Amino acid sequence: MEQKKEDKALTDVQLTRDTRNIPIGKVGVKDVSYPIVVMDKNKKFQNTIARINMYVDLPHHFKGTHMSRFVEILNKYRENIALDKLEVILSTMKEKLGASNAHLEMEFPYFVEKKAPVSKAKSLMEYTCTFSASLSDQFDFVLGIKVPVTSLCPCSKELSSYGAHNQRSIMTVQIRYSEFIWIEDLIDIIEECGSSPVYSLLKREDEKFVTERAYENPRFVEDMVREATVRLLSMQNITWFSVEAENFESIHKHSAYAAIERKKG
Ligand SMILES: Nc1nc2c(ncn2[C@@H]2O[C@H](COP(=O)(O)OP(=O)(O)OP(=O)(O)O)[C@@H](O)[C@H]2O)c(=O)[nH]1
Question: What job does the chain carry out (predicted)?
């Protein structure tokens, strides 16, 4: 009679030998939803929920990694998963999984209180942020933010008798830095690079203001990434950055896109 599965020894299949001689760069868990804490310039801390990816490398001779250990590690640090814990989490991942490299990626909504430009009506704006950290011999950290802006086409303004096509654009900035930078400050810098910032609450007087401001301040995607580059190059504490602009064109079915990446020094 065949032995029932529950009577069998709990074989650790992951530890068995693989003979294909192929190491794996990144293996682990993806899209784990988990509470985290982010430093907030005005309120000290902000609680939010991140989608977390955790990966390690796997030597060629092992069949699999130990998926449960990633979640055990998150659970160990569950009270305070924050920027200042990333390195110790990565170090624990390397240790518990016997790996030489560990990667931790988090994408989360971050809320900033914003005032409408004329009425000063307050509202909360959501920005999507990313923390991408890795540890091999050295710790590496990249902060990313997606900033929505309005862009108004300089070409359309020049050619048209009435108005100019304009749209919501997303500027994606990623930075490496030598001294801490607030998410709020980076958002302010990037919002200056489009034709106008975007708000979640506008009264009529604000709407007139932002419409006219965008018209007075036309920008191509090229202008947006160049404006960002001028500002990011002038910040001494930023050691590397990449900036992208995507305009979800209102007169085309496709987007306009531009990107610049710079390593300083
Ligand atoms: N490696 C690997 N594991 C997977 C995959 N999909 C699901 N799992 C499951 O992840 C679970 C956890 O595996 P382990 O972390 O090795 O669990 P464990 O052996 O009880 O834990 P340890 O004693 O810490 O190794 C297992 O039930 C696997 O079947 C996959 O694609 N790869």
Answer: Converts GTP to 7,8-dihydroneopterin triphosphate.
